[in-house]
What we know:
The protein has 3 helices and 5 strands.
Amino acid sequence: MRRFLYALLGTVAGLGGLIGLKANLAAFEAVAEAAAPPPAVAAEPTAPADAPAGDAPAADAGPAKTATGKLATNQYESLQVKVTVSGTKITKVEIAALNPKDKKSEQIATGALPKLQQATLDANSADVDTVSGATYTTKSYKESLQSALDEAGL
């Protein structure tokens, strides 16, 4: 009789936990759907504050070129990077396409891509560190970024 009582209580407790988990997942999915796609990090070259207006741009600045990398696909998403290059400097990095396979992949990519974009601007190359927890996203980002940089001639 005791075993039956313990089994019944365990079943009731387990069902209660599952119902509570389902409610939390529904709330999470609503928040994830409301989230915007990853923002594009852009760094426009600016003149120093003390420079007079009309100064010539930096020596390495040239005509701006925009190039879109190849669509890089992994088991969690496919993404495509678009870069703007002025001379030998990367001035803007955008995500041209992001197609995650599920909500978790979207959440990971949305958190990692702004970090990767900023790291690209800081390093001025595709040689950026892997974002922890986003290894596949980083690999695909770097692959697409490198093809865009190759197309732009950098």
